[in-house]
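Quiz preparation item.
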């Protein structure tokens, strides 16, 4: 009888240990599944944002490039400063709308470089109005290059490091 009691106690103790081990394993598996699900949701979110971001970035780049092309054409032709100013002002309005889309699409680094590009284009019209000429388009070119680099980085980001 004593042997049966000891055997039953050891069997119960073994079952308890196995149950605790199984519970710990289940908790670890649940935590791993939750982590993987969170990573997958983050990846899906990035993927869903990628196309709208790409469009917003491309629209802003196109408008910025149009400004540069217009200024270069002005320097080579007989376009009046008034015509140039009016056309840049029209592009500036478009650029500001594109910048708003980029600000919403993010991320912050891209939105900031879009703002810098917008300010640089705004400075061109000031040069023309107050100085009577386009003195320097390099700030616009540099701002456009910085925006391009930050946009490319944002689009290439896969969410693996945060």
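Solution:
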């Amino acid at each position: 009888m004593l042997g049966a009691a000891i055997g039953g106690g050891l069997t119960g103790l073994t079952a308890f240990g196995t149950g605790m081990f199984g519970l710990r394993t289940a908790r670890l598996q649940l935590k791993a599944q939750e982590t993987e699900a969170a990573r997958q949701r983050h990846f899906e979110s990035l993927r869903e944002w990628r196309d709208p971001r790409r469009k917003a970035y491309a629209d802003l780049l196109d408008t910025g490039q149009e400004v540069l092309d217009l200024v270069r054409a002005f320097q080579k032709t007989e376009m009046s400063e008034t015509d140039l100013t009016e056309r840049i002002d029209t592009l500036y309005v478009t650029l500001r709308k594109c910048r708003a889309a980029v600000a919403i699409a993010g991320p912050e680094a891209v939105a900031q470089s879009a703002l810098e590009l917008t300010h640089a284009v705004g400075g061109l019209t000031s040069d023309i109005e107050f100085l009577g000429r386009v003195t320097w388009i390099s700030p616009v070119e540099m701002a456009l290059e910085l925006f391009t680099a930050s946009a490319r980085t944002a689009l290439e980001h896969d969410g693996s490091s945060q």
